[in-house]
Amino acid sequence: MNRLAARLHICLGRLQSLPSARRSSGAIDNAHDPALTTICVQSALPALAELTLLYLNFVTVARLERNPTIKDEIQARGFGRDIPAGFLCYPAAQAADITAFRATLVPVGEDQAPLIEQTNEIVRRLNRQAGREILPEATALIPQVGRLPGVDGRAKMSKSGGNAVPLSASDTEIAAAVQRMYTDPGHLRASDPGRVEGNVVFTYLDAFDPDREAVAALKAHYRRGGLGDSALKTRLTGVLRDLLGPIRERRAEIARDADHVMDVLRTGTARAKAITAETRDAVQDALGMFRF
Q1: Which helix (H) or strand (E) holds 105?
Q2: In this structure, is residue 192 part of a structural domain?
Q3: Does any domain span residue 180?
Q4: Residue 109 and residue 10 in one domain
Q5: Can you give the residue range of the structural domain that contains 192?
Q6: d(CA 26, CA 38)
Q7: Which of 8, 111, 184, 218 shows its CA 20 to 30 Å from the CA of 18?
Q8: 196-202 long-range Cβ contacts below 8 angstroms, 24+ apart
Q9: Which range among 20-34, 79-93, 160-174, 202-216 has the greatest average pLDDT?
Q10: 111 near 147, Cβ under 8 Å?
Q11: CATH code of residue 263
């Protein structure tokens, strides 16, 4: 498994400070053991930029503009026709990130699936141009709950949108985020029947509550009436605290050793630099490009 600490993509939508060693510790947690995962810094891999530029010759502006993910982000950010070129070209950069590691399985939310599809289009065009398979196609690995809505009810949870529950959230912050969550606007009293569909609290319970039978019983109770929103939010708060508590503690433990974080990033980046350079060279050779 490879994990990029993206320092380039953050500049495509808005300028912000680049990740510090402390924030980079978020990439090293219970789910990303450096012994099993190559954790690297994107901007330190020049092959990615070279592949991105190359891939732009295998996709049209019209196709980039039709990408549903890009269309949604353009609308959400209010770009209109003043679209930064780098932002519009994000699918090509994403294709470079994926193909440089020859990834065949990419974990994404359902809103990112069009980027995987466009990556495969670029791969097929490149392979046809080369006359043989140079790069493999990738498959999107989408979880059961393919997209988490924001706590404010908007379609997508986003850290930049201020409607997310951070992995580093404290118990107090988790409770506050859950209290902000939309339920059923027509469920005015606990005795009223409520709608489960589109209810943000139930979406999160579906995603994170391990007791499926209990969640099913809560849904049935809510639909027939007699279950208040506060009871649902109390349950979800407990579920998220149990889930995020160990992650938060592990992250804090790692962040206390900045030297270890930097060592992991240096080792992973060196490994990734060799892998991505090898892929770049293979692509250039297959296309008959001169290099030395």
Answers
A1: strand 105-107
A2: yes
A3: yes
A4: yes
A5: 171-252
A6: 14
A7: 111
A8: 196/222, 196/223, 200/149, 200/151, 200/153, 201/229, 201/232, 201/233, 201/236, 202/232
A9: 202-216
A10: yes
A11: 3.40.50.620
CB 126 within 8 A of CB 283: yes
Count of the separate structural domains present in the chain: 2
217 inside domain: yes
| Confidence check: pLDDT of 251 > 50 | yes
Residue 1: pLDDT band by 50, 70, 90 thresholds? low
The one-letter amino acid at 157: M
**Selection from 1, 55, 63 nearest residue 33 by Cα:** 1
Nearest partner of 167 among 255, 38, 269, 36, judged by Cα: 255
- CATH code assigned at 181: 1.10.240.10
Tokens describing residue 244? 């995020």
Higher-scoring residue by pLDDT: 196, 148: 196
195 vs 17, residue with greater confidence:
195
Q: In this predicted structure, which of 52-66, 181-195, 203-217 has the lowest mean pLDDT?
A: 181-195
Partner residues linked to 141 by β-bridges: 107
Confidence of residue 20 (pLDDT cuts 50, 70, 90): very low
Evaluate whether 4 touches 24 at the Cβ level (below 8 Å). no
Which ranges of the chain does DSSP label H, i.e. alpha helix? 10-13, 21-24, 46-55, 61-66, 68-77, 85-88, 90-99, 113-130, 171-180, 200-208, 212-224, 229-255, 258-286
Amino acid at 109: G
CB 192 within 8 A of CB 226: no
Judge residue 89's burial from the number of C-beta atoms within 10 Å of its C-beta, 0-12 exposed, 13-18 middle, 19 or more buried: buried
For residue 2, what pLDDT is reported?
59
pLDDT of 4 higher than 80: no
